[in-house]
Structure formats: C-alpha cells, structure tokens
C-alpha cells in the first residue's frame, strides 16, 4: 500500500505521527496502512528509548557548576558594564538621587537561610566594587526576591522550582579540575590586563564612594524586613495605572519595581521569576500571559503588552497577586492603538 | 536562580548529546559558561528557555567535537552490566528489551550526525514541538521534521546492528561452551 512512498517519506510520516505533528489526513493514512504502522512501531521504540530519563545530575555537581558560572558571570559583567555606560544607556546615578528614588518593596524568600546566604554572597562580592556594580547587585537581590514571590503565586512548576532551588553556597567542588579550568578560562577572557587597566581608570574616582555606598546598602538590607506578605504586593508602595489593552478594554496594573534603561533583558526575565512567560515577536520585546481564574478564563484582556528593554526604561508591574507585567514608561507603545 | 531553574534540563540535553556522565558534566559546564557569556547579547526576542537550550546544545556539541570522543561499545563494558542490574531493581521497571534498547541508544546517539542528533534530543528529551525546535536551532519546521525522522532511522539502524551483534556474540559463546 505504501509503494508510492519512499522509505524516507515513510519515516517522516511515521515520525510526525509519533510526535503529534501529522495532519488529520496523514493520521488516517497511517492508521489504515499496515506498513506505516510497522514503521511507527519501530520508530516509536526509538522514541521511547531516547526519552527515557537519564540519571539526574548530582546536586553537588549542580551547585558547583552554577557557582562556577556565576563567578564567570561576575567577571564578565564586571567588564561589560563600562561599555554600556560608554554608549550612554544607563544614566549615572548619584548617591543622593539613588536614595531619593522610591524603592521596590521586598518580597518573601521561600527559604530564609538561603536568602541570607545569598545576601552574604552578594555582600562579599560587592566589597570594593564600583558604585554601579553595588547598585546592580542590590537590584538583582531585590528582583530575585520579587521573582520568588511571583513564582509562589503560580501553581504550575511549583515543585520543580522548589527542587531546583538547591543552595549553591557552601558546596564542596567535586570536580575541582573541571571547575577551576572553567573559571580560569572565563576569567582569562573577561579580565585581560588591558581591560583591568581601563576599568581601574574609569572607576578610580568613584571607588571610595562605592565602598561607602556598599556599606550603606548593607546596613539598609540588614534593617529592612526580608519577609513581606505576598498579599501586600498590590498595596504597599504600589502605584496603580490603567492601560489600554490590545482588545481595547482597560487593564489595571500596579507598579512595584522598575528597571533603569540599559537593564539587560535576562535580568528582567529573571525578575519575572517563572518559566513559561512567552515572549512576543514584537521588536518591543516582552509580553506576558494574563492570569486565569478558576474557570480558566483570562482575568484581563489577552494580548501582548510589549515593551522595549535594553535601551529604554521598562517597569515590572504586578497585576493583582498573580501577574508580572512589563510596560515601558516613556517609549514603546504599550497601547496597541 | 535562572540557571538553577533550567539546570536539570540543560544537563539532560548535554547527557543525551554527550552519551555519558563525565562528558555531560563537562559539556554542561561549558554550556553554563556559554550562557553567562552570552547573557548580555540575549535581547529577549525569544524566550530565555529557547535561547538557553540553543546555547547549551551548541556548547555541548562543541565540547564533544573538541574531545572527539567515541563511546565504548556496551557489550565490552562490564560496568554497563552493573548499571543494567541496578536499573531493573530501581524505579524504572523496564523490560530487558527496553533496557537493551536504551543502552544501545545511549551509545548510538553520539554517533549519529549532529544535524540529526540535536533535533531528536530536543524533541524526545525536552519535549519541544517542531516549531520550538525550529526556533531553537534556527531551522525551517519542514527541515526539523525531516531531520528527526532521519535521526530516528539512524538510531533504528544502530539498534538493529546492536541486536545482531548481540545475537552473534550469544551464538559465539554457545559454540565455545559446546566445544
């Protein structure tokens, strides 16, 4: 019956059938054809074998590898940020201006010990670093907290997120050679002598200020409560804005945090704190799925709310208790008009 | 946190691409480093997941190319027999033929051409649909469909060879015992 098909075509058809990618006509064709069903069975066996879960990585390996990557990230970021400043994306922020800015409120880490460890780690890394890096580190810690709270609201993937959040600190490297090689390689690339020299020149004048700022930030962190009831997210320090969604209906959103111009997209992704946030194809970047109520209906009009990140200001917004949404403040038309 | 959230899946990709734990660990480390190096270039036009899986797949393939490793033949490796035993008593509860298939596939995957291996891994290990794979690997959806089919055919042929090899080895042992 399949004489009209080459072996390759039969494989393709059977493979698409196994993956649920065959059209209804193709499904009918396969189910009516013994030879195609045999190929489906043969390739299905392969599919089963490949999809059998592999042994999970050891937690220790995960912790050490992530730590090595974070170290490399620190080194790389240390070098990259001045180049962003050169093109004028993030405006310089004085200490007075920085303090005068409204701060996003803190959110509840699921594991206080881990959060404290994380804070300690950031504190260690900040010592003696330039002002921008201190500010960035504190912002990341705060945004991480927001992300944790955001994920608490989501029912899906909850267990995965919890299990994946293994402490990265204090782990003894099991593959020291591999890790030290990796870190050394990353360090070599990121911190050439020339780059070190340039950076020293750029930040020489602000080093003292950075140290003082870093100490101030640490003191503030120590005195602030690290636990805020997630239910307070939509009231404490939030401002409410109404935007026009793409469907034409208004949607109320509340601002809890903002990102300065030049914020890398990945930091905003991280702040959103959950898998599965789809990203619009628009040049303006991010979009978020609206939350759904118990019946599965979207609780505000669907449609993308694009923003431009990387070069324009953007804000992280929490809608009710479920949704994180990014909206541009000044540019990039969030109103789909 | 972002890395922690995606680590296990990144590792699973590397494990399948590399074919063994040691190479998977090295490949995964390279993948994580590639991700943090590339973060500043990530522009948010695709999801972080798609982007990071692409980076990881390429990093692992590069690592494998660098090492130019070839897996050991399963029948010659006594440790694999031990692994086999522990898995039958574990949670998997697979039949013998399924275990033989899995072990043979594990060895065969690194041997098939990369252009077929990556889409098969993303489909069968990560569960991406064809459109997501196309986006991740920057291929046309039709190409993904064809490459997955061809990859599976390669694996089926390897599996058949392994079974034939098994039969030959069994017959050989039987003859030796009789002699």
Describe what you observe in this structure:
- Chain A has twelve helices and four strands.
- With 337 residues, chain A is an alpha+beta fold.
- Chain A has three domains: 45 residues, no CATH class; 170 residues, no CATH class; 94 residues, no CATH class.
- In chain A, strands 1-2-3-4 form a four-stranded antiparallel β-sheet.
- In chain A, a hairpin with a 3-residue loop joins β3 and β4.
- The longest helix of chain A has 28 residues.
- The radius of gyration of chain A is 25 Å and the shape is globular.
- By secondary structure, chain B is mainly alpha-helical.
- Chain B folds into two domains: 69 residues, RNA polymerase sigma factor, region 2, helix turn helix motif (Rna Polymerase Sigma Factor, Chain: A); 109 residues, Winged helix-like DNA-binding domain superfamily/Winged helix DNA-binding domain (Arc Repressor Mutant, subunit A), CATH 1.10.10.
- In chain B, α2 crosses α3 and α5 packs across α8.
- The longest helix of chain B has 38 residues.
- Chains A and B meet through α1, α3, α4, α7 and α8 of A and α1, α2, α5, α6 and α8 of B.
In short:
Chain A has 337 residues and is an alpha+beta fold. Chain A is built from twelve helices and four strands. Chain A folds into three domains: 45 residues, no CATH class; 170 residues, no CATH class; 94 residues, no CATH class.
Annotate the secondary structure layout.
The complex is a heterodimer of chains A (337) and B (179).
Chain A: H1 7-18, H2 24-31, H3 34-51, H4 59-86, H5 95-100, H6 112-126, H7 131-153, H8 158-164, H9 176-190, H10 193-203, H11 207-223, E1 239-244, E2 250-259, H12 265-272, E3 314-319, E4 323-328
Antiparallel strand pairs in A: 1-2, 2-3, 3-4
Helix pairs in contact in A: 1-3, 4-9, 6-7, 7-11, 7-12
Chain B: H1 2-18, H2 21-38, H3 48-67, H4 78-88, H5 96-108, H6 114-124, H7 130-137, H8 141-178
Helix pairs in contact in B: 1-2, 1-3, 2-3, 3-7, 5-8, 6-7, 6-8, 7-8
């Amino acid at each position: 019956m399949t004489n009209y098909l080459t072996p390759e075509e039969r494989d393709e058809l059977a493979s698409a059938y196994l993956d649920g990618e065959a059209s209804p006509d193709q499904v009918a064709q396969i189910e009516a054809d013994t030879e195609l069903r045999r190929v489906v069975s043969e390739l299905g066996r392969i599919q089963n074998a490949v999809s059998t879960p592999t042994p999970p990585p050891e937690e220790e390996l995960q912790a050490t590898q992530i730590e090595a990557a974070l170290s490399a990230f620190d080194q790389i970021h240390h070098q990259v940020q001045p180049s962003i400043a050169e093109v004028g994306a993030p405006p310089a922020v004085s200490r007075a201006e920085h303090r005068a800015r409204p701060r996003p409120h803190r959110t509840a880490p699921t594991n206080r010990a881990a959060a404290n460890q994380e804070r300690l780690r950031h504190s260690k890394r900040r010592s003696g670093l330039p002002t921008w890096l201190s500010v960035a580190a504190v912002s990341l810690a705060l945004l991480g907290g927001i992300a944790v709270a955001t994920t608490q609201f989501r029912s899906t993937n909850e267990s995965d997120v919890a299990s994946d959040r293994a402490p990265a600190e204090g782990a003894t490297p099991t593959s020291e050679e591999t890790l030290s090689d990796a870190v050394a390689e990353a360090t070599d690339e990121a911190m050439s002598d020339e780059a070190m020299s340039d950076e020293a020149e750029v930040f020489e004048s602000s080093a003292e200020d950075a140290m003082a700022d870093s100490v101030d930030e640490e003191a503030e962190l120590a005195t602030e409560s690290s636990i805020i009831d997630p239910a307070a997210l939509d009231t404490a320090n939030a401002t409410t804005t109404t935007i026009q969604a793409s469907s034409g209906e208004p949607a109320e959103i509340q601002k809890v945090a903002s990102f300065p111009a030049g914020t890398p997209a990945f930091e905003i992704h991280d702040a959103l704190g959950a898998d599965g946030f789809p990203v619009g194809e628009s040049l303006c970047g991010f979009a978020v799925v609206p939350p759904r109520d118990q019946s599965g209906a979207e609780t505000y009009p669907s449609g993308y709310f694009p923003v431009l990140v990387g070069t324009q200001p953007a804000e992280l917004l929490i809608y009710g208790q479920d949704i994180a949404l990014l909206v541009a403040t000044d540019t990039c038309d969030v109103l789909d008009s | 946190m972002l890395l922690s959230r995606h680590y296990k899946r990144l590792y699973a990709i590397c494990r399948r691409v590399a074919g063994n734990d040691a190479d998977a660990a090295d490949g995964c480390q390279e993948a994580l480093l590639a991700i943090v190096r590339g973060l500043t270039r990530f522009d948010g036009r695709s999801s972080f997941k798609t982007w990071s899986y692409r980076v990881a797949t390429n990093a692992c393939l590069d690592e494998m190319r660098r090492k130019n490793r070839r897996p050991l033949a399963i029948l010659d490796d006594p440790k694999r027999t031990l692994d086999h035993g522990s898995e039958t008593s574990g949670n998997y509860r697979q039949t013998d033929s399924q275990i033989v298939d899995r072990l043979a596939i594990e060895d065969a995957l690194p041997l098939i051409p990369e252009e077929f291996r990556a889409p098969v891994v993303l489909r069968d290990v990560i569960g991406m649909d064809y459109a997501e794979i196309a986006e991740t690997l920057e291929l046309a959806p039709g190409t993904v469909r064809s490459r997955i089919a061809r990859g599976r055919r390669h694996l089926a042929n390897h599996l058949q060879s392994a079974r034939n090899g098994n039969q030959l080895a069994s017959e050989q042992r039987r003859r030796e015992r009789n002699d």
